[in-house]
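Input chain follows. Return structure tokens only.
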Amino acid sequence: MINPPLITWTQDYAIGHQSLDEEHRRLVATINRLHAAETEGVKGRALEPLLRAVELATIEHFRHENAVLTLELHTPLGDEMGNEHFADHARSFAQLESIIHRINAGETFAAHELSRTLGQWFVEHVVGHDAPLKKTLQANAANEPKEAGR
């Protein structure tokens, strides 16, 4: 029997930046692999490789997203949106690290609790924290001059 994924990618999760959206898709796929492993009965430290994959993908993604804010969108460090977004990343990563630490300390989660927690963490990040970034990206795209002949 094939179990449905925990998170199904929808355009609601897209923020309008191709590479950032691809990173979001990879995070969804990794969280879904962790969910599938839990469904198959994998528990505790045996989930560590998948947790590490989520952690590494998150580090890479947050670094990239921060670079987009500063380099592509020219968001200065003192800018309210930039500061809040960087702080959101720090809080989100601290939540993820806390989950990983709990697993490494031997804490066991109820069936699917871990993947559901990570799924909720992902959705809160994309839908909640990335909403201002999505608006800025959309506004920038609308203001970009169109090339002749297009």
